[in-house]
Amino acid sequence: MPDAPAVRLTAITKRFPGVVANRDINLSVDQGEVHALCGENGAGKSTLMKILYGMQRPDEGTIEINGEPVHFKSPADAIARGIGMVHQHFKLADNLTVLENVILGAEPRRRWRIDFAAARARIEEMSRRYGLRVEPDALVETLGVGDRQRVEILKVLYRGARILILDEPTAVLVPQEVEELFDNLRELRSEGLTVMFISHKLDEVLQVADAITVIRRGSTVAKCLDPAEVTARQLAELMVGSELPTPELRESTVTEDVQLEVDDLTVRTAEGRAVVDGVSLRIRRGEIVGLAGVEGNGQGELIEAIMGIRHAGTGRIRYRSGDDLSDITGWPTRRRREAGIGYIPEDRHRHGLVLEGPLWENRMLGHQTERPNVRGPWIDRRGARRDTARIVDEYDVRTPGIDVPAAALSGGNQQKLIVGREMSGEPRLLIAAHPTRGIDVGAQAAIWDYLRQARAAGLAVLLISADLEELIGMSDTLHVILRGRLVAEVDPGTVTPEELGSAMTGAEGP
Amino acid sequence: MTEEKPPAGEPEKPPVSGDGSPAGEPEKPPVAPEAKPPAGEPDKVPAWRAILQGLGPQRLALKVGAPVLALAIALAITMVLLRLTGADPFSSITAMVEYGTEPNSIVDILNRSTRYYLSAIAVAIGFRMALFNIGVDGQYRMAAMLAAALGGAIALPAPFGQLLVIVAAMLIGGLWASIAGILRVTRGVSEVISTIMLNAIATGIIAYLLNDKRLAEVRPGSNNVATPPIPESGRVGELNGVLSAIGIDLPGRLYGLLPLAIVIGVVYYVVLNRTRFGFDLRISGLSPTAAQASGVSSGRMIVITMVLSGMVAGLVGMPELLGASYEYSLNFPAGLGFTGITIALLGRNHPLGIAFAALLFSFLDQSSDVLQEVDVPKEIVGVMQGVVVLTVVIVYELVRRWEIRLQQRAVAAELARETS
Amino acid sequence: MRRGLKLAAVTLTGAALALSAAACGGDKVESGDGGGDKKTVKVGLAFDIGGRGDQSFNDAAAAGLDRAKTELNIQTEEISAKPDEPDADKEARLKLLANRGYNPIIGVGFAYTNPVTKVSKEFPNVKFLVVDADQCKVEGANVLGACFSEEQGSFLVGAAAALKSTTGTIGFIGGVNVPLIKKFEAGFAAGAKAAKPDIKILPAKYLTQPPNFDGFKNPALGTDAAKGMLDKNADVVYHAAGGAGIGVINTMGGAKKFAIGVDSDQYNQPALSGVKEFILTSMIKRVDLAVFDFVKSTSDGTFKAGTKAYNLTNDGVGYSTSGGKVDDIKAKLDAFKADIASGKITVPTAP
C-alpha cells in the first residue's frame, strides 16, 4: 500500500448558506479502501463531498490527493485528478442507450466521428473487470434503479476515476439491490480503487466499510473507526450525539371504528393504465396502516386519490365524519381536508410547501379555510402567525423567524413545519408519506412520538415509507403494494426487512 | 371518467437541480427514485417565473433600494444612448423634465397613467397566478365598444347611466376573458395562445359591429365611425373641480374616473394579501402542485382569475369613454393591453410599483413630442422604456437572489449558534 | 405581436426621421442668416401615425411643407404621433407647438379635427390647418379645414381601369377598413361601372381592420392581396393602402399587369422605378397643395378661415398621365371629369 493517503482533508471549514457549516473537518482515506462517511441529514456530509468534488470551494483548509495539495475550481478539475461522483439522484438521459450515456461528454473520436466501437470495447472490458453487469445497448428508460446506478458508476469509471464518491447510494435501493451494490464495491476495492461512501444506514456501513468517519453538525466526531470495533448503536449515538430512538409501537390502540374504508379502488393514467388496481383497505381509529412498496408501484396515486387530488376511476372511498361513514369519492380536496384529513406529502417541495412563501403562509397551506388562519373570507394574520410561532416552538423548527421563506430552511426543518401543521387542528386521518425522510434522527424520533400520541388519541394513519424499519416498527397493519395491487398483508410483529423487501419486489411471499 | 385530469395549474417542469446538470434532466419513469434535491439546497425559482410573478426582495430597504438603483442605471444608459444619437443628453433630459412637469403635461400624464394602471393591474392579476393574460387588449376594446354602444343607446339619470356602462364593461371584459380560462381548463389550451387569438377575434368583431348598419353611426362626410355619443347625463365629469376645491388648479381635463384606478389598486392589494381567495390565488401561482394539494381547485381558480383579470380589463377604457371621448370610434386608444404587460412587469405586480411604473411610462410617452422638437428621434422613447424595464427586471432578480442567500445564511447562523 | 411589428415600422421610419431631423437642423441655421428683413416664420406640422416616410399621405403633406420651406423661406418643425394614442395626446402635441411659438400649425389627418378645434380656442392668434377635416367641418376664426373628394378622383381611375382591362375583371385593395378608404372604393366602383357597365369588380379587399393600421404600412400584406386578385383574373388593381400599396404595385408589375397608384403620382416614385411601366395611372390627392396653399396664405395675409374643398374642379384631386398609359382614353376620362365637375354625375362616397 502506497504511503500517501488517497484523500486527505485537513481543517476544512465551509460557511455555506442554508446548511450547517463544515467546521474544521479532518479526514483521511487510504488507497484501496471503502471509507464510509456517516452523519445525519444536514450534518454536512454532502457539502464535504462537494468540496472534494470541486462543486464547492472551502473557505479554509486544504485538500490533498495522493499526497499532492490541490485546488479544485470545478468538478472538471476533480475529474482530471481521478475523482468521480455518483449522485444520489441519477443524471442519465432516458432516451439514450447505456453506451451513449456512459460516453456522453467524453466521446472517443476518430476523425470527426464518435468511435463507438472503441467505446463499446472499453465499456465491456470495464464492466467485466469490475463486475458491473450492464448491457451497452439497452435503453436507460428500460432499466431498473440498480442498473441505472451501475451505469452511473460505469460513467464515472469511464472518465478515469480512481477515487469514487457515492452519495447515499442505497437510499433508492431495495435490500437485494443493496447486496449487489456492495458486491460491486468490493470488486472495485479489489481492483485498487478508493471508494467514499456516504450513508446514514448504519448496518450497511458496518457491512461494507473498511473505515468509518462520523460527522455531526459540521464537525468530525469520530475518525477512521474500525467497523469491527463499533456497533450500529454506537455509531448512531455518535451521529446523533445522544441516545437513539427506535420506531416501535407499544400497546395497540386500535379501535373498532373504521375511519377510512377504501373499496375496490382503481386509478388509471391518462393512457388508461391502472396504476392503482382494485385496492381495498380500511383504517380504524387509533390504527397505523403501513403500505410497503418499491417507489412507483401506485402508493403515490393511491394517496392522491384518497386526498382527492387524483380522480378515482372506479371504486369507493368512505370516511367517518361524525358518526357514520360517508362516501367521499366525489368530494373535492378542500372538503376532505376540512373534514379532518391531514396530509404529509411525499414531495414536500412540490406538494407540501410554497417555497417562496414565508413560514406563516406555509402554515396556512392546506388549512386556509380553518381557524386560526382565517376568519370568514379574511386572512387572520395575527392568528396564523401566532400559531406558526407555536409550531416552530413545539416542533423545534430551526429558523431565525417566521417571515423567512420556506426555501431558506433545511429539508428536515421544512418537514418538521409540515408535520406540525398537519398535526394541528385535530386531524382524524393522517396520510403520511415518508414523514421522516431526509430529516435528522432527533426529529425523526419526535415525529414518531407525535404519531404515537395522536394514534393513542384515536388518529387513523396511513403510513408510506421507504424506510422498512420505520414501516415495520410503526405499523399496526402492514400491506404490500406491487404494481398497483395490494399483494400481501404481513404481520409487522414478525416480518423482517429482508422478507418485506422480497415481497415488495414480488420475488416471493413472506 | 377514467381520464386523469391534467394538472391544470402550471405544466409540470422537471425539478431544477441546484447543482446545474449539463442537459435538462429527463423525466424519469415511475421506477426511478423521486428526484429530491439534496438536503440543504433549496429549490431555485427559475428566473423567468420570478420575473413574471414579480417576486422580489422582501425587506423594505431592498424593495425601495432596488428600483432606485435600477432607475439610476437606466438613466445612465439612456444618457449614453442620447449621446450616441448625437443629442446633448443633459439638455434633452432637461427638456423632457421641463415639459413633463408643465401643468398641461401633468394632466396628460395622469390621464395616461390611469389607463396604463388599470391595464397593468388586469395583467398583474393573471401574473400572480402564473396566468399570462395577453388578451387584456382585446378584452378592454370589446368591453369599451359594447359598453359605449349600450351607453349611447340608453339614457338613464345620473349615477345609473354611468354604473350601467361600467358594470356592462366589466361583465363583457370578464366574459371575453373567461373563454380563455374555460379553454385552458377543459381543453388544456394555453391561455397565451388563446388570448392572442381572442385579441384578433375581438378586432374582427369590433370591425364588424362598428359599422353604421350595426352599432355605430357615420356622420355625413366623416372619415370616422363611432358609436352614438353617450348623453350628458351618462358622462363622468372632470376631476379638476374637485381638485381646485382643495387648492390644486390644473388645466385641461383630468379623468373623473382616476379615483377608480386607485380604488382598483387598493382592492387588488387587499384581496390578494388579506383574503383567503387571494391566498389561494397567490399560492396557485407560486406552486400549482402545492396549491392543489392544499385543496385549491386549480380549474376553478384559473377561470375565476381569468374572469377577474378580464373584468378589470373591461375598466381600462372607461376613464376615456366616460370622461373624454363619450364614444367608441376609430380614434379610441388601442394597444393599452400590451403596454399593461410591460408596466405590470416593471411594477413587479405590486399596486404601488405599478403606479410608479405607469407614471414613469406616461412621462416618457409624454416627452416623446418634446424630444422631437429638440431634434431627438421619438423612437428613443421606446428605447428608454425598454432600458428601464430591462434594468429593473435584472436588478430586481439579482437583488432577490442576493437576499435569499442572506436569508439562508441567517438560517445557517441560527443552526450554528445552537451547535456551539 | 403588435409590438414587434411596430418596432419594425419604427426602424423603417427611424431612418427617414433621422434624415429629416438633420435637414431641419441645417435649415434652421440657414434661415437664421437668410431671414434678413422678415421675421422668421416657424411652421409646426403634426403628423398622424406613420409620419414622414410613409410613401403616401404623410409624405404628400411633407412634400408640401418642403416646398413651402424652400419657396417661402421659413422654418419648420415636424412631430409624429404615437400609435394608438387618444385625442388628448394630439391636443398636447398641438399645444406644445403653439407654446413654442410655431405659427401656423398643421394637423395632418382627420383625427386632428377635434384636437385642433379645442386647441385653436386657446391660441386665437395661431392659425391652424386640418388636412382631411372630418365631415368637412371646422370651427373658429383661425382654423382652416381642407377636405378632399377622393371619390371623384377614384371615379376617374375606376373608369380608366375598366376601359383598360382586357380580362374584364378589376379589383380594389384598401389599406385599413375605415370610412375614408371606403370613399376610394365607392368612387372606383362607380367609375368602372359608368365606363363599362358589364365590368366585373372583385369584392374589395381590406388588408387590416382598425385598430390595426398595418394595412397602411406592411407591403407583404399588399403583396398577398394582389396575388389573390391576380388569381381571380384581375388585370387592373387600384390600391389605397399607403406603404402597403408598394407590395400591390410590385406584385401586379411582376405579373405584367396594371396597378393604379394613389395619393401622389407613383410613376415617379424611385422605389417603384422597376415596375413603373405597369402603373396605369395614379389617383392624385393634392395634400401637398393644401399644405403649401395654407402656409402661403398665412404668410401673405390671404388666410381665410372655414373649409376648402379640393376636388376635380380645382384639380385638388385628379389622375396622373405620366408614362402615357392612359393617353388613348384621355378624352373619355376628361368627359367624365367634366360631367362630375358640372354636377351631371354625383359620385357616391360609400360603397
Write out the CATH superfamily name of the largest domain in chain A. Answer: P-loop containing nucleotide triphosphate hydrolases
Q: Roughly how many Å is the radius of gyration of chain A?
A: 24 Å
Into which percent range does the helicity of residues of chain A fall? 25-40%
Q: Give a count of the beta strands of chain A, DSSP E runs of length 2 or more.
A: 24
Give the count of helical stretches of chain A.
Answer: 17
Kindly give the count of domains of chain A: 3
CATH architecture of the largest domain in chain A: 3-Layer(aba) Sandwich
The largest sheet of chain A is:
6 strands, mixed
How many helices of chain B? Answer: 16
Oligomerization: heterotrimer
**Class of secondary structure makeup of chain A:** alpha/beta
Give the CA-based shape of chain A. globular
How large a portion of the residues of chain A is in β-strands, by DSSP E? 25-35%
**How much helicity do the residues of chain B have?**
55-70%
- Proportion of residues in β-strands of chain B: under 5%
What's the end-to-end separation of chain A, in Å? 45 Å
Structural class of chain B: mainly alpha
Q: What is the first-to-last residue Cα distance of chain B?
A: 58 Å
Helix and strand sequence of chain B: HHHHHHHHHHHHHHHH
